[in-house]
Amino acid sequence: MTRRVVITGMGVRAPGGTGTKEFWSLLSEGRTATRRISFFDPAPFRSRIAGEVDFDPQLEGLGARELRRMDRATQFAVACTREAVADSGLDFASLDPHRIGVSLGSAVAAATSLEREYLVLSGAGRDWQVNHDYLSPHMFDYFSPGAMPAEIAWEVGAEGPVTLVSDGCTSGLDSVGYGVQLIREGSADVVLAGAADTPVSPIVVACFDAIKATTPRNDDPEHASRPFDDSRNGFVLAEGSAMFVLESLESALARGAHIHAEVGGYATRCNAYHMTGLKKDGREMAEAIRLALDEARLDPTGVHYVNAHGSGTKQNDRHETAAFKRSLGAHAYEVPVSSIKSMIGHSLGAIGAIEIAASVLAIEHNVVPPTANLHTPDPECDLDYVPLTARELRVDNVLTVGSGFGGFQSAMVLRRLESAA
Fold first, then answer.
1. What is residue 279's predicted lDDT score, i.e. its pLDDT?
2. Catalytic member of 304, 309, 319, 381
3. 320 vs 396: CA distance, rounded Å
4. Rounded to whole angstroms, how far apart are CA atoms 251 and 56?
5. Domains along the chain?
6. Which of 260, 304, 319, 346 is labelled catalytic?
7. CA-angle at 32, arms to 27 and 35, nearest 5°
8. Is 80 a catalytic residue?
9. Most confident among 30-44, 63-77, 276-290 (mean pLDDT)
10. Is 60 strand, coil or helix?
11. CB 57 within 8 A of CB 367
12. How many C-beta neighbours within 10 Å does residue 3 have?
């Protein structure tokens, strides 16, 4: 019998807040946390805004040695793991370490540290030949993405399956989906799953500038992220992390744990079409949605809220709208849909995990977060995108989706436990 999997712990670090409570406060109030980049001088770039996290490593309990060893993204993941573990109430020291797993997602891994070290070694790009005598002793930790989940494993004593999932902007969704599969198949009893990315660095900003994927609306940072709005012109880059404690329903009930939500279904597909292009009919995302709903044994009419990818690019928003119509049928016009990227920006591989957190919180609070900055909907995006203001609504089942470069399309169904059959 396949084991049912639930979320019993959660930790979030996102723009506009320092933990899960602050994150939900921002979303439910419809506030935005996008601003002019402060980490470096953004003047030379086309897009000069981002969703930055006000993260204090010392307040997070990270020491000098940890800060030297860990990239900023890894620091985020560790801080979120600690919050998630505390939230779960689970005594990891009492568990069999071989039955604890880690599944971490990241799109650009230690890009921040790699760029910093390159600037040091090359004299800020002046020297073609670099002097290895100045190489950081922790360069391996920056070069090897596997160092990130290893840090989480050390944090919780996990000696079971430990892996990094890196498939662009669906990494966060897919890492949690993989963690769920580990428990369902019996390879682990508890999994720390989630994602972290800190891509607000010159090299990443320059890359997205080159393909004009990010918005140049620099004169109004707070209102620059405009998913589904007719005036949208690209996404706002961001950073962040979310981590979850996953365990079987049986074990959670046995120990009387607070269950945030059940992961009812998950699926991922690829369009095998283009690195950045999307087909207008949304067929691949629709197929992932259909399979996730089938796994959850949920009729499309049972979806109470859709947490959209909603990046704020014209191509993505129209592709996604078509996918919802294709997979949900007439119900697509009745179910509320929103994008939290309108408030916190797009943190690449981390955003899928952060959006899972938002979906879980929507279930717990019976509130649908809004799509901020949505004043004039694109006529081709004609669904109920919950503009500007959060909406109180009984939410038992949430569909959350992700779309990434390479043609990756993923979907997950989260549900209130008492509504699960």
1. 80
2. 309
3. 22
4. 35
5. 5-254 (3.40.47.10), 265-419 (3.40.47.10)
6. 346
7. 145
8. no
9. 30-44
10. coil
11. no
12. 16
